Structure formats: structure tokens, C-alpha cells
Here is the input.
Amino acid sequence: MSGKRRRPAGERGGGFSSPACSLHELGQEAPAAGERGVRIKRIYDKPDPADGYRALIDRLWPRGVSRQRAALAAWVKELAPSTELRLWYRHDPKRWAEFGRRYRAELRTHPQELAALRSRARRERVTLLTATREPRINHAVVLRALLLRGASKRR
Here is the structure.
């Protein structure tokens, strides 16, 4: 045996009640084609025309994904957490609040990239792509909230 835990039949990763419910449980609704806003998706999920502008926001390229399969519009490494922050955090739920504070501080050092992504989200659907397995406590959640908060202030 390889040492990896096998999931029982019917159990999906992430602990969602079903794949269809995962968007709702993340606070995201299924997007209509041409809709604006920001959503989060794993880079390993199949690209969809409803994704709109697909931006990878990880510092490292995801394993096993070709550039063609990724179907990216952009790879925005500058908006990924620093290597030091990522290694410190390690998806430890006890460090989530502090991670969010530190990551927002890092994002403030990249105002042009943040403004460009926020502006694009006002015009079209933006899908933030990440390789993380943690759907609720990852940098994409922090970045999405920041983009949406900034967009709502200007409307």
C-alpha cells in the first residue's frame, strides 16, 4: 500500500456535501456567462468558458498541469504570499487570522497589480486559480475578499 489514505466511495475532497454544493458552501454562486465578479477555483478543475479571466495566483507552478491545460489569461505571482509567509502558515487553522493579516500587508506592497485585477473584476468575471487543497483557509479567500471589498467601495 502506498501509505495514502483512500477515501470511501462517494466521498469527495474538501468535506463538501456534494460537488454541486461546494460553490455555495464557499460563498460563491455558480456564475452565468459574462457575469462580473471574483470566484475561486482549483487549477486542477477543468477550465470553463464561464470562468472569464483565469488568473493563477500561486507563486509556484502547480505540479502536473501543462500551460495549455491551465488555459490561463495571467499568472500573477506578485499577488501570491511570499515563500516565507507560505512556509510559516502551512495551512494551520490556528494561524489563519494572523496569516490573513500578514498576507494583506504583503498585498499592500503591490497596489498596481491589485488595482488591475480589481478593475478587471468590475468589467468581467475573474477566476482566481490556486493549487491549494484547503477550500476555506487559503490565500485566494483573502485576496477575493480584498478585491470585492475594494470594488464595492467604488460603486
Residues 139-154 form the longest helix (16 residues). Confidence is low (pLDDT under 50) at residues 1-34. The two ends are 56 Å apart (CA to CA). The chain has one domain: 35-154.
